[in-house]
C-alpha cells in the first residue's frame, strides 16, 4: 500500500472566489467546482492539488504569531523566479504584503481570505 499527498485544503467562507485567486496566481486548472468545494490541479498531474472547502467561520491567523491569538497552522511556500515581480503580481490579483518580513529573499503575503503564503527564490 502506498500513501500519497493528493491535495492541500484551505478553508474559506467563499471557495469559488479563493480558488479563482490561486488559479490565476499558479496557472493551474480547475477540475471540480461547487459552491462549497473547488479543486485545482497543476498541469502536471503528479503534483498534489489545492482544494478549497466552505468554512463559514474561518478566522485568519495573526502574523507574526502571538500567544492567545489565532495561530497559523500551515501555509503555502511558492517558489518564484523573480521575487519582486511575483510579489507585485500577487498583490495585483488581491494578495496583501505583510509588514513583518523575516527574510530578505522571502515575501510573506495574505491571500484575499487571510491565509498566509510565502513567495521565495530558489535556494532560499
Please give a structural write-up.
By secondary structure, the protein is an alpha/beta fold. Helices cover 19% and strands 31% of the residues. It is built from 2 helices and 8 strands. It has helices at residues 15-26, 83-93, and strands at 7-12, 29-34, 37-41, 49-54, 76-79, 96-97, 106-110, 116-120. Strand 7 and strand 8 (116-120) form a beta hairpin.
Radius of gyration over alpha carbons?
15 Å
The CA-CA distance between the termini, in Å, is: 34 Å
In CATH, the architecture of the largest domain is: Roll
Report the top-level CATH class of the largest domain.
Alpha Beta
* Beta-strand residue percentage: 25-35%
CATH superfamily of the largest domain: 2,3-Dihydroxybiphenyl 1,2-Dioxygenase, domain 1
Organism: Streptomyces alfalfae
InterPro entries: Glyas_Bleomycin-R_OHBP_Dase, Glyoxalase_6, VOC_core
Domain VOC: 4-124
Protein name: Glyoxalase
Structure summarized in a few sentences:
The chain is of the alpha/beta class. It has helices spanning 15-26, 83-93; strands at 7-12, 29-34, 37-41, 49-54, 76-79, 96-97, 106-110, 116-120. This is Glyoxalase.
Give short descriptive properties of this protein.
124 residues, four-stranded mixed β-sheet, 2 domains, globular, 31% strand, alpha/beta, 2,3-Dihydroxybiphenyl 1,2-Dioxygenase, domain 1
